[in-house]
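Review form for a predicted model. The reviewer records the input and the model, then writes brief findings.
Reviewer: anonymous (R2)
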Amino acid sequence: MSKESVLEFIQKVSTDSALETEIEQAVTGKSEQDAATNIVQIASQHGYSFTSDEILAQRQEMQELSEEDLEQVAGGSLGGSVRSAYRWTTRGW
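Model under review:
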């Protein structure tokens, strides 16, 4: 259930610009672990439950996706939101 929660939260962030901005501010300039902890705290405020290890594992998976993989995942209709999720989960935090 937790991986699904992470993915649902990523989708929510990718469609909510205010939440995306909040996440970007929470991870900018932070260590990987601190950024993940901040994301978990924000997610819990929005009703999502997962650990920092789970968000870091999903981040790793997303970093391994190529541009072509993103196109296939997007299937055309989710292109923008998948790219947005990819951007904030693969930042240099």
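Findings: Helices lie at 2-15, 17-27, 32-45, 52-63, 67-74, 79-89.
Further findings: Residues 2-15 form the longest helix (14 residues).
Recommendation: see findings above.
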